[in-house]
Every structure is written in C-alpha cells, then in structure tokens.
C-alpha cells in the first residue's frame, strides 16, 4: 500500500519523494555549529536527505570551495546543495523497496 499523498508532511520537510516500497525520502535544511580552535565555531548549513523506510541518509553542504587563481574562496550555494540532494533522493526512491514504518497504536 502506498503512502497517502494527502498526508501532512513533517515540519521542516521541503521536498518529498515516494519510494517504490511506499516509504518517503524527505529533504530538509539544517544548521549546525561546530567548535573551532579560536572558540568562535563554524556554522555548517546543509541539506539533508533521509529515507523513512530504510533510514539511508546523505548530507549536502551549502558551502562550496571555489578555486581562484591565487587563493581558494568559500561561497554559500544552497541551490547546488538542494540540486544534489534532489538527485540523490530521486535515485534512492527509484530503487528502495523498504516499506514505510508504521506507528504502533497503544
């Protein structure tokens, strides 16, 4: 049985793909701060893809290194991360046969 497309998406899900097994592959945006030696921390924005059937997941950074002639520059490119995430989600959804996990009623 396939997931009902009328189902309300979880908060934060920006895109959703339906797998052949009836689970979903959800795309979300996230932000994490990692400690650095200077004590300030590094902000890591990312797009995450997670399968609700088999729990496969992948994370795509919003930051890209651009090679310049004399130095490397770090630029934020959310669109590129989202594009890579959509490609991964589509490929995974086409192959994943895991069934969606059902919540147990108590």
Notes on the protein architecture:
This protein is an alpha+beta fold and 106 residues long. It has one domain. The protein is built from one helix and six strands; from the N terminus they run E-E-E-E-E-E-H. The chain is elongated, with a radius of gyration of 17 Å. The model has no long low-confidence stretch (mean pLDDT 84).
Q: Could you say which overall geometry the principal axes of the C-alpha atoms support? A: elongated
Main sheet record: 4 strands, antiparallel
End-to-end Cα distance, whole Å, is 22 Å
- N-to-C SSE string, H for helix and E for strand: EEEEEEH
* Content-based structural category: alpha+beta
Strand order of the largest sheet: 1-2-3-4
Number of strands: 6
**Could you say how many structural domains there are in total?**
1
* Number of helical segments with 4 or more residues: 1
Which regions contain 5 or more consecutive residues with pLDDT less than 50? none
Fraction of helical residues: 10-25%
How large is the share of residues in beta strands? 35-45%
> Radius of gyration, Cα only, in angstroms?
17 Å
Oligomer: single chain
What's the overall average pLDDT, rounded? 84
Which characteristics define this entry?
106 residues; alpha+beta; 4-stranded antiparallel β-sheet; two-stranded antiparallel sheet; 1 helix; 6 strands; 17% helix; elongated
